[in-house]
Every structure is written in structure tokens, then in C-alpha cells.
Design brief:
By secondary structure, the chain is α/β, with parallel strands linked by helices. It is built from eleven helices and 20 strands. Strand 6, helix 7 and strand 7 form a beta-alpha-beta unit. The radius of gyration is 24 Å and the shape is elongated. Bound molecules: pyridoxal-5'-phosphate.
Length: about 375
């Protein structure tokens, strides 16, 4: 069986078995009583939202899914995903509350005016709309400070009883600053007290993405919201995505041969060069030009010259027997070697999230399950 559906031999393998193992390992680290909301926004960070959400649902290891917009959530519902879905973005236009309700999603209410609009839309449409309040504790993005959150809760309880199901915040410095994180958590505690006093039932309280959940047990509250860890992009978890291509052209060139746009590289000796059908239009970051590498026959081969839109050149001089058709791993493992996404991102001056999110639609995703 061919490893890719198209004729262009560049593809991403997404190992749903590894994803399930990561979910299981993450849950085990959280302990009993902490639910898991798996973040599948941005097409599951480029891994493919329908497949990843479907695998998470089938595993029974996931309680909620998180998406960034009503559109993303609706697409999952249309693919048969039944798990509770929280829309993490601030909903606007406010009419999208009605669409969220129609698809059985939980909306984020990030302002008092959003709370009023949600109540209005619910009344007008005669629908029950569920929501979580977003608390601003230091991210400086969307959300309400505790006093406004208390007002929003009061309004929702009066105008739309039963709609309010939870409240949450997002931590901005869990990797960088324990003191900042603790201040955010303290502010969230204040919001929890203020909002809970206005609600007549227990609310789902959550604050932590992968890093905070793993580093600060006190940030877990009732639910953690991992993305990075489940995709295996956080230390201690198994990589899920491997980006592969094949050598399509080879040549031997003399010392001093210029390679690629701008002739930014010249061979230092007689060299064997291989051309790969992958470029920045696939998501192979141009910033890896003359810096990154790929694995061919289990050996690390440096990228030489600028990565262009659809092609990249690597030096395979030291790879015995390299030839056209050989598989090349851009990100992932081959034999005993690995080019991890976080390490490649660091080399490119990027963050790990950017690499899978940047893989474009022309790269087929092959699911291993
Ligand atoms: C609100 C929210 N929660 C959770 C996450 C998941 O973060 P991570 O992938 O670092 O686990 C994100 C990701 O950006 C987010 O925006």
C-alpha cells in the first residue's frame, strides 16, 4: 500500500495511537477528579481536527474538546463528534451564540455586553445556550476582571437561568514565571469566589493548558486544557506527527557550486546533493535554510541554500547509497535519529506550535491508527 494518496511524495503521518497514549499519560499525571479538555483548534494544530477529535472521543479519555470558533466546532459536529465542545474564542458577531446553541456547543462569554447579548439571543430564539465566563487575570487578551465577571454571572442567572456552566482563565507565563503564574491563579480564585456566590450550582473551573497543568498542580481546578502535550510537543510525551518526503533528484557537483536563490550556499568540496519536493508553501520553514536538516537512511543531512516555495536541497554526501526515491524525514524519527519539532522550531526562531499549524492543505495527512 502506498504511504500517500497523491503523486507528490510529501506527506504528514499522524499517529493516532501515540495521541491516545499521550491522552492517557496526561490524564494519569492529572489524577482523579480532573477532567480533560483536549484543544483541537486550528485543525488540531495542523494534525487534522476531525481525525484527532474522533480518536479522542473513541478513546474515552477526553471529557471536552476546545475549538477557537463556532465554525470549527460546527465542522466537528458535522463529522459526528458528540463530546462537549467549548468555543475558546470570544464570540462575535453575537448572533453566533444562536449557531453555537444549534450545534450544542458551549460559548465563551468574555464581557458583560456578551452576557447581555447571549441572554437576548436565548430569549429571542427560545433556546438554552450554555456558556463559560472568561476571566482576565493577566493575559491581557479577552476576559473580565472578577467584579465584571460577578455582574455577568448575576445577569445570566437572572435572564438566562442554567446557561452558566463554568468559568476559566488562561495563564500567560507558566513556562517563564512562577510568581506571575501564582498571581494569575490568585486572581482567578477571587473570580471563582465572586462568580460562585451568584450561581446556584457547582461550576466547572479551569485555568491550565499543558505546561501549567503539568508544572502547577494547584492550577488544575476541575479540568485541564492540554493541546501541546497530547500532540507530543511537550517534553515527556510522544511525538504524533512526522513530516516526510522523498528524494526526487540527485546530482554530484564540484566544490564551489552555488545552491538556491541568492546563491547563499556554495559547496565546500565535491558533493552529492539531493532535491526534495517540499518547500515553505508546505510549511517547511524558510528560516531553516542553511540551518536545518533532514534524515535520509538514518543520517542527518544539512539543508543547503534557501528553502524555496516547493523545493529544498540537502547535502547527502555522507549517506552511503543515497538515491532517488529515498524517504526523507523533515520532522520526526527515522531509525535511531530524530529531528523533533520543538528543536527545529528553536533553530528557526519559532515556537513548536508554528510548525504543525503551518503545514498547508497540500500536504496530505495520513492517519496511523
Ligand atoms: C485558552 C487555551 N487553553 C488551552 C490551550 C492549549 O495550550 P497548550 O497547547 O499549550 O497545551 C490554548 C492554546 O493556545 C488556549 O488558547
Amino acid at each position: 500500500m502506498r504511504a500517500h494518496p497523491g503523486l507528490r511524495p510529501t506527506w504528514a503521518e499522524v499517529d493516532l495511537r501515540a495521541l491516545r497514549r499521550n491522552l492517557r499519560a496526561f490524564r494519569a499525571r492529572m489524577g482523579a477528579g480532573v477532567k480533560t479538555l483536549f484543544v483541537v483548534k486550528a485543525d488540531a494544530y495542523g494534525h487534522g481536527a476531525a481525525a484527532c477529535a474522533g480518536a479522542a472521543q473513541a478513546s474515552g479519555l477526553c471529557d471536552w474538546l476546545g475549538v477557537s470558533s463556532v465554525d470549527e466546532g460546527a465542522a466537528l459536529r458535522e463529522k459526528g463528534v458528540r463530546l462537549p465542545i467549548l468555543v475558546l474564542g470570544s464570540l462575535y458577531p453575537f448572533e453566533s451564540f444562536a449557531v453555537a446553541a444549534r450545534y450544542g456547543m458551549t460559548a465563551t462569554v468574555a464581557s458583560l455586553s456578551a452576557a447581555r447579548s447571549l441572554a437576548k439571543v436565548a430569549r429571542r430564539r427560545g433556546r438554552r445556550i450554555s456558556c463559560h465566563l472568561k476571566i482576565e487575570t493577566g493575559m491581557g487578551r479577552i476576559g473580565m476582571r472578577p467584579p465584571a465577571a460577578a455582574q455577568a454571572a448575576e445577569h445570566l442567572e437572572r435572564a438566562c437561568p442554567g446557561a452558566l456552566g463554568g468559568l476559566y482563565t488562561h495563564l500567560s507565563c507558566s513556562e517563564e514565571s512562577p510568581s506571575y503564574t501564582r498571581r494569575q491563579l490568585a486572581e482567578f480564585s477571587r473570580a471563582v469566589s465572586a462568580v460562585s456566590a451568584r450561581a446556584c450550582r457547582p461550576l466547572l473551573r479551569h485555568a491550565a493548558a499543558s505546561s501549567a497543568a503539568l508544572r502547577y498542580p494547584e492550577s488544575r481546578w476541575d479540568m485541564a486544557r492540554p493541546g501541546l502535550a497530547v500532540y507530543g510537543l511537550y517534553p515527556g510525551f510522544e511525538p504524533v506527527l512526522t513530516l516526510k518526503t522523498r528524494v526526487v533528484f540527485m546530482k554530484t557537483v564540484p566544490k564551489g557550486t552555488a545552491v538556491g536563490y541568492g546563491a547563499s550556499y556554495r559547496t565546500k568540496r565535491r558533493s552529492r546533493l539531493a532535491t526534495l519536493p517540499v518547500g515553505y508553501a508546505d510549511g517547511f520553514l524558510r528560516a531553516l535554510s542553511n540551518k536545518g536538516g533532514v534524515l535520509v537512511r538514518g543520517r542527518h543531512c544539512p539543508v543547503v541554500g534557501k528553502i524555496s516555495m516547493d523545493m529544498a536541497t540537502v547535502d547527502v554526501t555522507r549517506v552511503l547509497g543515497a538515491r532517488v526515491g529515498d524517504e526523507a524525514v523533515l520532522f520526526g524519527r527515522q531509525g535511531a535519529q530524530e529531528i523533533s519539532i520543538p528543536s527545529a522550531a528553536a533553530l528557526a526562531g519559532a515556537i513548536a506550535y508554528e510548525i504543525p499549524c503551518g503545514l498547508t492543505a497540500r500536504v496530505p495527512r495520513i492517519y496511523l491508527s
